[in-house]
Amino acid sequence: MVSKKVGYLTTFAILLHEIPHEVGDFAILLRAGFDRWSAACMQLSTALVGVLGACFALCAQSPKGTENATAWILPFTSGGFLYIAMVNVVPDLLEESSLWQSLLHVLLIFCGMAVMAVLSAIVD
Fold it and tell me: Which parts of the chain span the membrane according to its record (predicted)?
């Protein structure tokens, strides 16, 4: 809706996030007592709902209303990701007792930012 560049970068970032996230969810379902088949079916069903939501959003958009939609969708989504980071990641960093581990976490955060900056320069 914004540009091909933003679309490619967002897709890449989501893939990098979702693959380990889905593996972790699968492990949680196994630990909760699901067998492998049931856990895989649950993961597939949640993924399909996400794809259906994306398809609905793409079908519902109109060329005329794209500017209005992106004016609130991008800040809302960015804010959601920042909230998740502040609630889930930062407290874990603050509880870390090892200075080396804290520095490693911060270094990896900057590496992620550098990867997105490089991709932003390369794409389009």
Answer: 37-59, 71-90, 102-123
pTM of the model as a whole: 0.48
- Cβ contact 119:11 at 8 Å: no
* CA distance readout (Å), 59 to 36, 62, 63, 73: 34, 8, 11, 16
| pLDDT tens digits for range 23-68 | 888 888 888 899 999 999 988 888 888 888 777 777 776 666 556 6
Residue 58 tokens read as 């793409």
